[in-house]
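thought: fold this chain, then report.
action: predict
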Amino acid sequence: MYNILIVDDEKLHRKGLYSLLEEICPSDMVWEASDGIEALEILEHISCEIVISDIRMTKMDGIELLKEIRGKNKDIFFVLLSGYAQFNYAREALRLQACAYLLKPVDRQELNETINDVKKKIIKHRNEERKAADQEERLKETVPAYVDRILNQFVQDPKFSAGDQLVSLLPLKQQGYLFLIKADSASEDGHYFEKAGREIGHMIKKFFDPVSSLTFELHSAYHTLATFVVDEELPNMNKLEELSGIIEKKGFSNIFIAVSELKDNLFLQRCSAYEEAIEALDFSFYETKNLFFHENTKVSTITDPEELNNNDFFAAVQNRQIKKARELFESMLRHASQEEKTAPVILKKRTVFLFYQLLKKLGPLIEKDQREKLYERDQALIQTESFQQLLKEGQQLIFIIANCISHQKSADGFIKGCKEYLETHYMDEISLESVAALFHFNPSYFSTLFKNLFGISFSAFLCNIRIDKAEELLINTDKKIKEVAASTGYRDPNYFIRSFKKKHGLTPDEFRKRRTYEKEVSREVTRKT
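observation:
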């Protein structure tokens, strides 16, 4: 629907035009004004797309009205009417960008064609405006992305030629430092960090004001922002803790901040500042601290512990003493971390070498094709992002290697190995398919074999283990129900409650209260006797 305003001081002509437009444009809203002044009053309240105005009027003629409207709103399409075919009027109308000039009396067909033509121009104009707005929006999105790309090249390439262009964004040729922020987002939107990162950049700028800063997304690290800060001293721990709290309120968790050393000329020393911050951030691998200063970690980054080596560990794996092997591996790994002072990359490489030695020693006991597949798992160790993940990956590999040793598919070996695996990994995301793969079975055959040997299905067996472990936690700890669920492999607390009630006829909370009451009664009886 369009709003069309008729402006004419001759009532007869105005009403006649009104009637024509009602017939021609039944879905449009038609308004009328007796002169230019009244027309301006209407336009103050009604957004009209088309104005059809007579040129000669007493209080304000059509040309003056057109000038007034053009000064306020260039999106209104103007059609001028006149009883005279005067060139001067037509020329002025064209100069003021009137879209049509009609002579009175107005012909119905000509008016219809003119209105349709004006509507096409309006549609075209709107499309052009929308396109321009879209281009402007894309440009706004593209410019930050371009700046991010330039800044990423700037910090990683000492010979980067376009660095002088960045001085206009931040006066980098003075003292300062670079710090990194790594954080996890709860949002499932893959672009959330990119969007929120810009907002966090503005927050950081405001946080450090009046000190100058510039934040950009780091492409070489997942969910990581880098910030240049021009200052004569490094920030203290309290300031960074406060910044971490602000970011956490934006919906982020597992926030780690790593700071380079202070540089005399941040422009010339930006690459070393970047490398120092990256090295410091690597220590977030241990997940026990969230703030790292390179000056406190630089000695540790060159620490090179001796290769992990333990004959007792090798023997435990060879004899398929999985529990003992796992405990020895954890002890060796923690010792090699040197109280979390060992650079994570070194620790991971030493772990890879440990398993290389293990496979070399046990090679004759493992089938060749299986041995080759095990050698390929070193990448899984290298790609771990935390100490706990490295520990878990290594313990998983111990189990796989132990069960690849000859005769591991005998019934006794299968029962022992499978039972031990489920009892030590019940808290992980386990499926019949994943366990079947560990023992090198087809899932369908594994399911049948499992039920024949254990007397119940795989899922029922796993459920029993998890519920038994949950009972222990409910009785012996104060953990919340959802924490107990997570600790026993249930990602959905409601499903855990249903499974628990199915076995015991009580919800976990009811079970805990009953056992607590029974304990109190037992203690009271004991006390009295």
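thought: worth noting. The longest helix spans residues 108-156.
final: tokens above.
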